[in-house]
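Recall that a protein's primary structure is simply its ordered list of amino acids. Everything else, from secondary elements to tertiary packing, is in principle encoded there. The following example makes that idea concrete.
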Amino acid sequence: MVVLDTISLLLLDSGSKLLGLKARQLIKRAYQRDELSVSAASFLQVSLWEKEERIRYAGDLKQWRLEMLGAGILEHPADGTIFMSSLSSGPISEKLFKDIILATTMKVGATLVTVDDFLLRRKKIKSVNAKI
């Protein structure tokens, strides 16, 4: 199982060359095995970024989510276990989303594809730098 963090999901969807070769290969293998996934929190984070005008999306984000899921990306809902693992984050912030995605990855025993240096240094999870 592979979990994409929010930035990796956006890089993949946009076809960005910022997504590195190693990450692309891992993503392709996971996709072929029906093991490519995201935390449901990533869709919420994208919506917040769009409302804050940090990113632009011309279409309907609800439809975009359905397209991602229809394309074969699995969605891990954030449940009580995941939220309890993320409580140290405090108010809604970038750290909260990071913690939810991290808790999701740990719960499902996945490899995390991320550009986040903090998450890449975590010894508790297996991770791949999305830029490599």
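Strands lie at 2-4, 36-39, 74-76, 111-114, 126-129. Residues 2-129 form a domain with the Rossmann fold fold (CATH 3.40.50.1010).
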